[in-house]
Amino acid sequence: TETDLQNVHDLLISIAMEGGKTMLSAEHEFLIAASTKNNTSDLVTKYDSQIEAMVESRTQAAYPHFGFLGEETFKHGTKLLDTPTFVCDPIDGTLNFSKGVPNCAISLALTLNKKPVVGIVYNPFRGDLYTAIKNRGAFLTKISSPSSSTEMQKEKKFKLPLHPIPPPMPSLNTCLIALEWGNQRSGPNWSLRTSVHNTLLTAQSEGGAMCKSIRSNGSAALDFCYVAQGSLDAYWEGGVWIWDVCAGWCILEEAGGMVAGANPGDWEPGLEGRTYFAVRAAKIEEQVGVVEAVWGIMG
Ligand code: IPD
């Protein structure tokens, strides 16, 4: 019910604040120790594991019958079910986090029937809290003093609905696009990323390159939120996982954006599809136009 979703949303915000404090507690470690998972760009720190354990225990204590899918405890082959499931990326952008680049976030979501219905993305280094509940809009709340637990009680916040009219986006060449590199350095995903990157920057269209420029911010969750707030026009990536995108997906859709698949023709990507194209423009035709233009250069 609506009340249940509101309660889940409130719980996930409180958990995100606690996770954010843990992330901030590492702020003064110059380089945060990280272990590699599959290769040198696929990392985990003690903070990822600690935050995920806290998220799992708090969500399971409040909702013992709900499922839980988290990046650090995920077992290959586990499938998302129709029943309510918490999806957790304790730190999205672990590589940034480990090097002190303040573009990383805790990303928490609830799915129902394999669709995101609550999304919370919190970057404690900027005090940016993005929140959404399905059919109830997306919001950005600025948290002014997130680092001290006593100040947390009387923090100053302001909340803005994510609905500014994005600037006109008549074609791809007016777009600022995020294209991430993921953590694979070989195989089909890698060749596709490099060739799309290359084509977007080098192919000519009217008056210059095919798009305004490309950014690789290092956090899929925040890329979704930046598209939702109109800072980016689009985000394209293949190879990410459900926990990287689930919360951001809910936020983007509630802000009026759409998610397609990164591969040509995929207008209805599933949460587990691992390839995504997020876009938001004033008009639906513009969103469709940008997706088709990028698919068009993929050959
Ligand atoms: C990563 C980030 C990155 C994306 C990778 C993800 P993690 O998440 O979202 O932007 O390119 O594919 O794995 O591992 O830092 O949670």
From TrEMBL:
It comes from the Eukaryota. Its EC number is 3.1.3.25. It is an enzyme of class 3 (hydrolase). The keyword rRNA processing does not apply. One of its GO terms (molecular function) is metal ion binding. Keywords: Hydrolase, Magnesium, Metal-binding. Mg(2+) binds at E71, D89, I91, D92, D244. Its cofactor is Mg(2+). Pathway: Polyol metabolism; myo-inositol biosynthesis; myo-inositol from D-glucose 6-phosphate: step 2/2. One of its GO terms (biological process) is inositol metabolic process. It catalyses: a myo-inositol phosphate + H2O = myo-inositol + phosphate. Belongs to the inositol monophosphatase superfamily. This is Inositol-1-monophosphatase. The lineage of its organism: Eukaryota, Fungi, Dikarya, Ascomycota, Pezizomycotina. The chain holds residues 54 to 352 of 358 of the full protein.
